[in-house]
Write a structure and sequence with these properties.
Length: about 280
Amino acid sequence: MNSDLYDALQEEVCTVIERSGIRLNKSQHDQLYQAVKKLSEVEANKAKNALIDGSPIDLNTLNKLAKALGNDPKFSATVTNLLNQKLAKNQNGADIPDKDLFLKNMGLLEKENRWINKQIFNTLISGNIDGNAVSATRLQTARKIAGVAFNGSTDISIPASNVGAYTKAEVDSRINAKGAKNTAHLATNGWWKCGDTGIIRQWGITPPLNAGQIYTVSLPYPVPHAIFSANATVKYKGIASEGNLGTYVEIVGKSLIISADYTRTGIKAPRTWELVCY
């Protein structure tokens, strides 16, 4: 044991304390313990951050990650099984298990049958079949073509207007499937309403407003719920020569309020406005 050994031991201990950010204090005798504890916590946090790779606060523990995955110990196998149930894009529908049921659910079989029937009707009407119905094989069960019974024993006559025609019920069904109809009132103070979303656009022009006048707009269509946005501008062609005119818009509940402001009080000018509501 000599002075060199004591110096080396002192330097080793002091290096640990100083590297931890703690200032040396000869009257405090647990500084080495505090330094080791602090450095251990820093390294532990680095390891944790590396493990969660900067995950958001709601996924920053292994327990939270497990809950996010449904606490499924075989999560990888579960995902693989679900992926195996998906259709392959490069198969172009060849891997659909029940193709007939798929076509039926898509409504394609009904459309295909209508197209085939229409071709049969057109062929019968245009006389493109060799011979006539008398020489054809008789059907065991008569079928109806455009409402006319046909079993192959006699010729039938089908009005051309019946081929490919839709009933009123079919037309109404197709129209109703498109959604609600848009409505509008086209005027200087008018509105337009989307039938599907209920969004309403309104527009109009105020009377000429005095300087400092506050005007509540009389909306052509009452706001059912709330106003999304609104804007207004001066309808006056002599702004540059007569002075600067200002317009301020305020939405108060279901009302639109316009404030008029300009430098020369003798000018009266109307405002054009527009808003979007639902």
